[in-house]
Amino acid sequence: MSTQETWRPTTEITTGLRFPEGPVALADGRVLLVEIARGTITEVAPDGAQRIVAQPGGGPNGAALGPDGALYVCNNGGFLWHERDGRLYPGDQPEDYSGGRIERIDLATGDVTVLYDACDGRPLRGPNDLVFDRAGGFWFTDHGKNRPQDRDRTGVFYGKADGSSIKQVIFPLEGPNGIGLSPAEDALYVAETLTGRVWEWRLSAPGVLADARRDRPDGGRLLPAPPGYLLYDSLAVDSLGRVCVATLIQGGITVIDPVANTAELRRFDDILTTNICFGGPDLRTAYLTLSSTGRLVSVPWDAPGLTLNFSGGA
After folding, report:
1. 283 φ, ψ to 5°?
2. Could you tell me if residue 222 is inside a domain?
3. 157: closest CA among 224, 81, 101, 197?
4. Side-chain-facing half-sphere of 113: CA atoms under 13 Å
5. Is residue 310 part of a domain?
6. pLDDT tens across 85-128, in order?
7. Quick check: is 308 in a domain?
8. From CA 302, how far away is CA 284, in angstroms rounded?
9. Which residues 6+ apart lie within 8 Å of 233 measured at CB?
């Protein structure tokens, strides 16, 4: 079952960003985000003031605070960029593609350390989004890169924050992008961009699928989606266990209830509404990146967001 509605007006926090994604809401009202086209980690104050925290270059993408207080970032290695009618759009793999990697960023100094750039000898291509579990490990997607006549086959990985271990858990997927955990951390959610699908896999332990045979999209559980053509981007889970996934082309956030098996599209005014995170008092404020128009906005949410692991001391 799917429904659509136009959501309430947003509050614009800041503009002029170069394709923002990966927002991380801090306890004091600041928001960290990436500017993929600038290659920066940028801090946005509640009054909209911007400050560059780090300059990893390439294409910093999804981000999350880790158990040591550092910011962990998926770096996709960069895109070709296209500007049309005042909007910015990512394209194929660029000539100066710098390789995919997972980076650790010291927020006090801005120092960038490459944690992983390969798994079992195979280079990471375009890491996109990540989420930490209670054990201190993190799941991440590799979206891959597009070229004029081909694209990468990629999947989902699990790594440790100290750089000691990385493994591929799910392969292949079609442009895996957003990733999140259920409140009990017994389910993993992954959004595929190219198919417009969100999959659920049950978990038995950190980094372990409950059924080892469920290692393909048709081995996971397909969640409902709104009607019509859409692409999916990043996602976040709220305290009700709903999967809130950024929805491209239709321009909004699709709220999926895995228990009721429903999907509701809440529209916003950028066809590249790419990311959502929760912050503010009681986690009832949703922060959205409206990427083609370079904006960070907020909107009241109808339920608190899920508290992310290791976010409390930010």
Report:
1. 55, 35
2. yes
3. 101
4. 12
5. no
6. 999 999 999 999 999 999 999 999 999 999 999 999 999 999 99
7. no
8. 7
9. 21, 177, 178, 191, 193, 245, 246, 247, 248, 272, 273, 274, 275
Number of domains in the chain: 1
Q: Tokens at residue 276, please?
A: 């959502």
Q: Are the beta carbons of 143 and 156 closer than 8 angstroms?
A: no
pLDDT grade for 218, boundaries at 50, 70 and 90: low
Q: How far apart are CA 82 and CA 127, in angstroms?
A: 21
DSSP-assigned beta bridge partners for residue 101: 75
Token pair belonging to 127? 């890491």
Identify whether 183 is part of a domain: yes
94: helix, coil or strand? coil
Domain of 13 in residue numbering reads as 2-300
Residues of the chain with pLDDT > 70: what percent? Answer: 94
Using CB atoms within 10 Å of the CB of residue 277, give its burial: 0 to 12 exposed, 13 to 18 middle, 19+ buried: buried
Q: How far is CA 27 from the centre of its chain?
A: 20
Least confident of 124-133, 157-166, 204-213, 299-308: 204-213
Is residue 63 within 8 Å of residue 131, measured between CB atoms? Answer: no
Q: Which two tokens stand for residue 202?
A: 């049950």
pTM (two decimals): 0.96
What is the model's pLDDT at position 5? 64
Instruction: Give SS3 for 206.
Output: coil
**Taking a C-beta distance cutoff of 8 angstroms, is the pair 278, 300 a contact?**
no
Summarize pLDDT for 16-27 with one digit per residue, the tens: 999 999 999 999
- CATH, residue 171: 2.120.10.30
Secondary structure of residue 90 in the 3-state scheme: strand
- Find tokens 């003031």 and name the residue: 49
**Span 142-169, average pLDDT:** 97
